[in-house]
Amino acid sequence: MTASKNSFALHLATLGPIGNIPFAPGTWGSAAAVLLAPFCFVPLPLWARLLVLLAVFAVGTWAASRAETALGQTDPGCVVIDEVLGQWTALLPATIPTIIRYPRLWEYALAFALFRFFDILKPFPIRQVERKLPGGLGVMADDLVAGIFAALGLWLIPLGLKLIGLPLP
After folding, report:
1. Is residue 9 part of a domain?
2. Cis ω on the peptide bond leading into residue 76 (within 30° of 0)?
3. In this structure, is residue 100 part of a structural domain?
4. For the CA atoms of the chain, what is the radius of gyration?
């Protein structure tokens, strides 16, 4: 691997300086993803969101694999591109903003909390996915599964609240 390819891969994998924040880089990576989502993810139609997720998965797998090799570590904490994949997956059910309907902040907050919950605790099968898949694929795939769990929560929780008579705004 050349130094320039490693440097570029590390920059992508760490989202520039975000992955190098010394305290809770994964949470900071998730926060960055949530802050970017209303501008470059949630406004897209579902088919485009899925294409974006596929692109982030592919690029992230490459970058995370290179970062692991360059840093000599398995799943280094500074690699946070996986948080973008997981957080944006969690936001799949979020309301698409229109002129009349603006983004609902509770959706972003709930998606953030649910994704961080599943990403940190790694209930079955998330931890198994991380352990069984090699390199950058495992780094990205476990956050994808955590994001899917969070997306289900973001979809089901408001439905449950509405059924008991507590609709969210």
Report:
1. yes
2. no
3. yes
4. 16
Q: How many CA atoms lie within 13 A of 117 on its CB side?
A: 13
- Using left for φ > 0, alpha for ψ between -120 and 50, and beta otherwise, residue 167 falls in beta
Strand ranges, E, within the chain: none
Which of residues 130 and 100 earns the better pLDDT score?
130
- 167: tokens are 């609709």
Please tell me the distance from the alpha carbon of residue 107 to that of residue 112, in angstroms, as a whole number.
Answer: 8
The burial of 40, by beta-carbon neighbours within 10 Å (0-12 exposed, 13-18 middle, 19 or more buried), is given as: exposed
Q: Which domain holds residue 129?
A: 3-163
Both ends of the chain: CA-CA distance in Å?
A: 51
User: Is 169 a member of any domain?
Assistant: no
134 within domain boundaries: yes
- For the segment 123-135, the average pLDDT, to the nearest whole number, is 91
The reported pTM is: 0.90
